[in-house]
Amino acid sequence: MITLTTSLSRLLRSFTVRPCSVAGLAAIGALMLSGCEAISPPPIPRGALVEKMDYDQLVLNSSTQNDALSLLGSPTAHATFNDNTWIYISMTKDLVPLAHPVIDKQQVLVLNFDNSGVLRKMNVLNKRDAIRVHMASGATPTPGTHISVIQELLGNVGRYNPMSSMGSTFGGMGNGMGPMSGQGTGNGGVGNSMP
Prior knowledge:
flat
């Protein structure tokens, strides 16, 4: 035991840190971390990538649905109760090391057409127009009974009888009529009969 302690103390003394090596390690660490910013991944585009120069070509009371399709492509969605309202949704996410992706740019373009297909209204919503939605606290009550772990473990004891579906030859009861007709419990014996 003494030799082990002595060799351990010698080993620890050989790993002493000198002030000049600390400064060298700090300089190497700073150089390594400075390169992290240059290697950051590119932003991730999501949705319909619609640019301002594209939808600026649409003219109110003149452009049609065909013009919008040729300039912007098909919409991301239509309004729930109005097929003449087209919605283009786009966003750009930036990946952040050791964190969730951050939404860098978010845009929603809403085009309202009349019944003849002419553009009557155009609205552009940005990230600052978004409404933040929070999770509701609490729990939703559900109907039913609250059973304990013991009740759950012992609740099916005695319900399964593999011999009940085999008839009177193998210990089944009855002639196929009544409560002891050879049918297993639950679902009329389906799943607990032998072929």
